[in-house]
Specification:
Blueprint: H1 6-23, H2 29-62, H3 65-97, H4 121-127, H5 133-139, H6 142-156, H7 161-186, H8 189-203, H9 209-239, H10 243-260, H11 263-277, H12 282-295, H13 298-314, H14 321-337, H15 344-355, H16 363-366, H17 370-395
Bound molecules: aspartic acid.
Aspartic acid is lined by residues 261-263, 297, 300, 338, 340-345, 374, 377-378, 381.
C-alpha cells in the first residue's frame, strides 16, 4: 500500500470512477456529487488569489524590463506557434477523414447559446483592461486580473528599493501560502477525480458517438498527434528534456485537467507540479503558467478548426482555401479568447461560424460528444502550457530534471 504514490492513487480513482459510473449509474450520484463539488470548489477557491500573487511574484522575480520583455516575447511566440501547429494538424485530419461528408443528421437540436457567444473578438480585447480591478478579482475575471497583475508587478520593480522589497515580499508570501493550500488540496485529488469521473460516465450516453464517431475520431487523433508527437518533439529538441520524465512530473495536473475539464481549476496543480516535481523555477512558472492557462489552448484551437469544418461538411458547404484560412485564424483567436472553464470552446465556435458565414445552429450537431472531447482537449491545453514553461525555463538557463 505504501508504495503507491499520489499519481497512482489518482489513476485508481479515475478507473474506479469509470467503473462505478458505468456499472451503478445515476443512483450513486447523490453520494458522489457532493465529493466532486467539494473538490471543484476547493480548487476554484484558490485560483484568483493564486493567479494574482503568482503573476506579481513572477514579474517582480524576472527583474528588469529587458528580461521581462524577453520572457514575454518567448512566451507569446511559443503559444502562437504551438497553437498554430495544433490547428494545422486538425485541418489536415478533418480534410482527410471528411467526417461530415454524407453524414445524415436527422436531429437538428438548436443549442442555447450562452452570453459568451455574443461577444465579438473586439470585446475580448477591451475586457483585458479592468475598469475596476477589485471587481475583476471579485468576479473572477481572469484575463483582466492577469493584465492588472502584470502591470502592478512591473511597476513594483520601478519603486525605490525599500518599497519594492516590502511589496515584493508581501506578494511572495501570499503566493507561498496559496501554494501551501494547493498542496493540501492535491491530496484530495484521488477522491475528487473518482467523483468527477462517476458523474461524467453516469450522465453521458455513449450512443451519441455512433453518428459522430468519425468527427470524434478526427478530434481525438489530432489531439493525440499533438500531445504525443509535436509537443514531446519540441520538448526534446528545444529543451533537451525527456518527455517521459516530464510527463511523470506533470501527471497529477494532467489527470486533474482530464477530470475537471478546466485549465483554470487545474492551475494550482499545474504550478505545484512544475515547481515541486519538475523543479522549474518560480520565476518562470509563476509567469508563464497562469498566462498559459488563460490564453494558450492548443487542444481547443485544434478542436475549433475540426468542428467548424465538420459543420460545413454536414451542411454540404464547400469552403474555399481562403475560407479555410479564415477558419485557421479565427480558431486561433477563439482559443485565445476561450476561458479555461468547461465547454468554453464549444461556445467560441460561433465566432468561427460567423466569420465564414456558416449556420450558428451547427454547434447543436456536435453538442452530444462535447463533454468527452472537452476532457481531452483540456488535458492537451495543460500539457502544452507545461511544455512551454519547461522550454522557456531551459532557454533562460535553468537546469532541472537532470
Ligand atoms: N475546457 C477547456 C479548458 O479549460 C476550454 C474549452 O472548452 O475548450 O481548457
Amino acid at each position: 500500500m505504501r508504495k503507491i504514490n499520489l499519481t497512482g492513487w489518482i489513476l485508481i480513482g479515475l478507473v474506479l470512477g469509470v467503473l462505478v459510473g458505468w456499472l451503478v449509474g445515476t443512483p450513486i450520484l447523490p453520494w458522489t456529487n457532493p465529493l466532486a463539488e467539494l473538490f471543484l470548489r476547493l480548487l476554484k477557491m484558490i485560483i484568483i488569489p493564486l493567479i494574482f500573487t503568482s503573476i506579481i511574484t513572477g514579474v517582480t522575480g524576472v527583474g528588469d524590463s529587458t528580461s521581462f520583455g524577453r520572457m514575454g516575447i518567448k512566451t507569446l511566440l511559443y503559444y502562437l506557434t504551438t497553437s498554430f501547429l495544433a490547428i494545422l494538424t486538425g485541418l489536415v485530419l478533418v480534410n482527410l477523414l471528411q467526417p461530415g461528408v454524407g453524414a445524415d443528421f436527422g436531429f437538428q437540436e438548436v443549442p442555447q447559446l450562452g452570453e459568451q457567444s455574443l461577444q465579438s473578438l473586439g470585446d475580448i480585447f477591451y475586457r483585458l483592461i479592468p475598469t475596476n480591478p477589485i471587481a475583476a478579482l471579485a468576479n473572477g475575471d481572469t484575463l483582466a486580473v492577469i493584465f492588472f497583475a502584470l502591470l502592478l508587478g512591473f511597476f513594483i520593480t520601478r519603486l525605490p528599493q525599500p518599497q519594492r522589497t516590502l511589496l515584493g515580499d508581501i506578494f511572495e508570501a501570499g503566493f507561498k501560502v496559496m501554494m501551501k493550500m494547493t498542496q493540501f488540496v492535491i491530496n484530495l485529488a484521488p477522491v475528487g477525480v473518482f467523483a468527477l469521473l462517476v458523474r461524467v460516465v453516469a450522465t453521458t450516453g455513449f450512443e451519441a458517438f455512433g453518428n459522430l464517431g468519425l468527427y470524434a475520431l478526427a478530434v481525438v487523433s489530432g489531439l493525440l498527434i499533438h500531445a504525443v508527437i509535436t509537443l514531446p518533439l519540441a520538448l526534446r529538441l528545444l529543451a533537451g528534456i525527456s518527455p517521459w520524465r516530464f510527463l511523470q512530473a506533470m501527471s497529477t495536473a494532467l489527470l486533474t485537467a482530464f477530470s475537471t475539464s478546466s485549465s483554470s481549476a487545474t492551475l494550482p496543480m499545474t504550478l505545484e507540479c512544475a515547481e515541486d516535481r519538475a523543479g522549474i523555477s518560480n520565476r518562470t512558472s509563476s509567469f508563464v503558467l497562469p498566462l498559459g492557462a488563460t490564453v494558450n489552448m492548443d487542444g481547443t484551437a485544434l478542436y475549433e478548426c475540426v468542428a467548424a469544418i465538420f459543420i460545413a461538411q454536414v451542411y454540404g458547404i464547400e469552403l474555399s482555401f481562403l475560407q479555410q484560412m479564415v477558419v485557421v485564424v479565427t480558431a486561433l483567436l477563439a482559443s485565445i479568447g476561450a476561458a479555461g472553464i468547461p465547454m468554453a470552446g464549444l461556445v467560441m465556435i460561433t465566432i468561427i461560424l460567423r466569420a465564414v458565414g456558416l449556420p450558428l445552429e451547427g454547434i447543436g450537431l456536435i453538442l452530444a460528444v462535447d463533454r468527452v472531447l472537452d476532457m481531452m482537449r483540456t488535458t492537451v491545453n495543460v500539457w502544452s502550457d507545461s511544455v512551454g514553461t519547461a522550454i522557456i525555463a531551459r532557454s533562460e538557463g535553468e537546469i532541472f530534471l537532470k
